[in-house]
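Supplementary notes (optional reading)

For those who missed the lab, this is the record we used. Protein: MBL fold metallo-hydrolase. Length: 215 residues.
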Amino acid sequence: MIEIHNFVFNPFYENTYVLFDETKEALIIDPGCYEDTERQELVDFVAQHELKVTKLINTHCHIDHVLGNAFVKKKYGVELYIHAEDEATLRSVEVYAPAYGFTEYQKTEAEHRMKEGDVITFGNSEMEVLFTPGHAPGHVVLVNKAQNICIGGDVLFDGSVGRTDLPGGDFDTLIQSIHDKLFSLSDDMEVYPGHGPRTTIGKEKISNPFCALKK
């Protein structure tokens, strides 16, 4: 059984997720920890639950989701998984990070490239990769259909969708990703987004002002 814990890190109020199961193997997804206090909060949780971090994953590579990449890689000796279409997004963070006040950002490289249909395993558990561009060119979400879990990054929010005015963003592509990929999932599927509270596929199909399905 997968357990999910989230932290809210950095000035963008980004959700960082730790997924783990009964084996104590764990994934860290979108580590936004930048300040020492944030890093310590993550480390303390991992230690208290006696977790073994096995993989680091970015749903996409905007600055708020990658600030802790270098720290997590060094602390836990893990490798980074991204989609190949987001490599340029990751490389660009080093250029613009100082303008946002993150003068001590440490760049990282990805060792693995995810693609649609890949399965990310940890312990007795797995998450399937869905390619969902629009907010970022290489955005992915991670889904476990047995438990109705979707780690959604910045695609679909409670009553909103990811912004598309950043480089590589496209509104029509985002809406297509939501309709074709996410809205094909169970209505009971819980979406754990990159910002804000959880929601469900069924709720957003009906009420989301940006992407609800017309009746």
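If you only remember one thing from this example: The mean pLDDT is 97.
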